Amino acid sequence: MSRVERPAEGKTELDQVWGLRPHFYKEFMADHARSIARVDPVILELCRLHMATVFTSAFSLALRYRPALDAGLTEEKIAAIPRAYNSPLFSPAERQCLQFAEQFAIQASSIDDGDVKKLEEAIGVEPMIYLIKALSVMDQLQRSTVAFRLAPPAEVPDTLPDFEIAKLAA
């Protein structure tokens, strides 16, 4: 972590940086947990990891969302995210969500009515609203991990209880 000269006490770099404002950290992470819990876990994790790749968030790429793994998401499919648009591993809805998440991460202001309509047609109105909210909190968290240059964590912060360290093949 190179951008914070006097971090707070904490077991992970995330805790040390965000712990400088403990009330905000607690409130933000509670909102993060509520927001991501409302979304299909596989779609959420595919989008989260795609955004982490766009942002080059080493911290986020080192984690896996346990509910998505429990729902059957595999490292094989995760590795195929960059080729999702042509891969038979991905459903049309997953492809649309990934496309929307990428656009959200790169330039949310370029999202137009047609983009929203395509997402709505792919997953429905209520899931679309929850996904967009989740994209927002994931965007904020991931951009902060990049801004503070947080390394991949050796352990999962207590504020991310539904996550685990990725088990990558050697």
TrEMBL record:
Q: What is this protein called?
A: Alkylhydroperoxidase family enzyme
